[in-house]
UniProtKB/TrEMBL annotation:
The keyword Magnesium is annotated on this UniProt entry: no
Major localisation: membrane
Residue ranges of domain Major facilitator superfamily (MFS) profile in the record: 34-434
Keywords, alphabetical: Membrane, Transmembrane, Transmembrane helix
Pfam family membership, one: MFS_1
Record membrane topology: Multi-pass membrane protein
Sequence intervals crossing the membrane: 32-51, 71-92, 101-121, 127-147, 159-183, 189-210, 252-271, 283-309, 321-341, 347-367, 379-398, 410-429
Record InterPro entries: MFS, MFS_dom, MFS_trans_sf, Proton-linked_MCT
Signal peptide: none
Compartment(s): Cell membrane
Protein name: MFS family arabinose efflux permease
Amino acid sequence: MNPTSRPAAVPVPVPVDAVPPRRPSRPRIHRAWIVAAVTFVTIIGGAAFNSLPGLLIDPLHTEFGWSRGEIGLAVSIDMALYGLTAPFAAALMDRFGIRRVVVVALTAVAAGALASVWMTASWQLMLYWGLLVGLGTGSMALAFSATVTNRWFVARRGLVTGILTAAGASGQLVFLPLCAWIVDEHGWRPASVTVALAALVVVPFVWLLMRDHPADVGLAPYGGTYVEKPAPAVGAATRTVRVLLDAARTGPFWLLAGSFAICGASTNGLIRTHFVPSAHDHGMAITAAASLLAVIGVFDIIGTIFSGWLTDRFDARRLLAVYYALRGVSLLFLPMLMAPAVHPPMIFFIVFYGLDWVATVPPTMALCREHYGEDSAIVFGWVLASHQVGAALVAFLGGVARDVSGSYDVVWYASGALCATAALMALVIRGQPTDRPGAPKAPA
């Protein structure tokens, strides 16, 4: 060994505790938020059609000579099918999966809107607008957002529910002014094509990014623990019908369904369908009237959230009575507010009506929970169906009244009287001593 050479260095073991920890990687966005975002966009795309019927009543009447009653009948078929499909939508998603049902629903909406470009007879309007679009939009009703929220989220469910509920109003805010401008500048056919494209554009996002269950991608729900994906449900549709038959033997169900039918008649059937053509009768531009209708969607969100806060603190029956009474009074004043230009009293009506638009939903849901316990979600689905049937009737009868009388005034007055009836119906619903799951049903 060379005396001048240095001995080889011997590696000294380093204690494990002395090794600096690795910097944690930035957490990725949970897949649940991507699914929620796709759901939000899907609801907006589906809501595009709901912005269209009120804008097309006058153009279709002018071009084809169809009566407003015929056009209103097509809209009423759409609304009725929307309501009657909604209770079964969750069962369809449990059986065939969210992604397949939503893709088929969007395709049906697009097909109905696109096919209407070539229609020449009123029965085609009822087939395309009524049947195809009604079944499509009904399959993407409240059950869609509720199913996504329940499967993909444990934490933040309230936040996600609020966001997805706001999607419908957001779609109205986006598409109403846009479609009104297209109708005014280019005619009704480009507007119908726009609605079809809005539905079709969403389809690839749903197919590529939507998943039926967190277990499909090996994840736990957001804020929860991993659970296996359940087998496709069978018998859900049978249970939906059975719950309806049981609830139909009780008095509160008919009072809730009847008052909510009047709610639909005085909102979707009346204002959403006939406000724009009625304002146009008084010389207001279609774009201005549609913009007012879009503003209702903004205050709709505020009113619904505030109504939920009130429902936690006050008797739901009294809240419903106040909501319907105030709505009825406002409708009695509406004929006096119609004018070629937008004045402050009309703006006040729009803000007030927007706050009251679906403020009835939280107390109605609370009363369903109070009387029907664990079946309350399905019962509310059927009550929602009555909402759409009421809307369908007024969408049709409002057009007939305009054809016969030459004015919408009688429609506003009649709807105001109906709202007074709904207020009385809400007050006579008997209270239930408990709202625990499985609470006994109220007797008929």
